[in-house]
Write a structure and sequence with these properties.
The protein is α+β, with helices and mostly antiparallel strands. The chain has one domain: Mannitol-specific EII, Chain A (3-Layer(aba) Sandwich). Helices cover 42% and strands 21% of the residues. The chain contains five helices and four strands, in the order H-H-E-E-E-E-H-H-H. The protein has a four-stranded mixed beta sheet with strand order 1-2-4-3. Strand 1 and strand 2 form a beta hairpin. The termini are far apart.
Length: 124
């Protein structure tokens, strides 16, 4: 979340809202083996559409029986419900691509990570 604040994409209160959702809803945010998706409502402080992707060198348990521990953290901010759904659909494509996930997990730098994500995107 702090990456999104630093980029000017969300207000600090959005990070707190994401954490509140996680506390209230439990491990529901662990959407696939090793992957957590953090988000809150657009009105909680999203300034522009954004996504942060962080790889963890030491996986963290979130309390999900099947998908723990987590080594990929996604934080999503959307400006409205339609953009939120569209972003989730794009993310589902990425998360459904095992080769892309392997490249993301193997990335050793921010540049490697960006290239891994972009390699999954369809050509314009």
């Amino acid at each position: 979340g702090e990456l999104l604040v630093a980029a000017g994409s969300v207000e600090p209160r959005y990070v707190e809202a994401m954490m509140n959702v996680l506390r209230e809803m439990g491990p529901y945010a662990v959407i696939a083996p090793g992957i957590v998706l953090l988000h809150a409502r657009p009105e909680d402080g999203v300034l522009r559409p954004c996504l942060a992707l962080v790889t963890l060198s030491t996986p963290v348990p979130f309390g999900h029986r099947e998908n723990d521990p987590v080594d990929l953290v996604l934080a999503l901010g959307a400006v409205d419900k339609h953009a939120h759904v569209a972003a989730l659909q794009e993310m589902a494509l990425l998360l459904g691509d095992d080769a892309a996930l392997r490249r993301i997990r193997a990335a050793e730098s921010d540049r490697d990570l960006l290239l891994a994500v972009r390699s999954q995107e369809p050509a314009p």
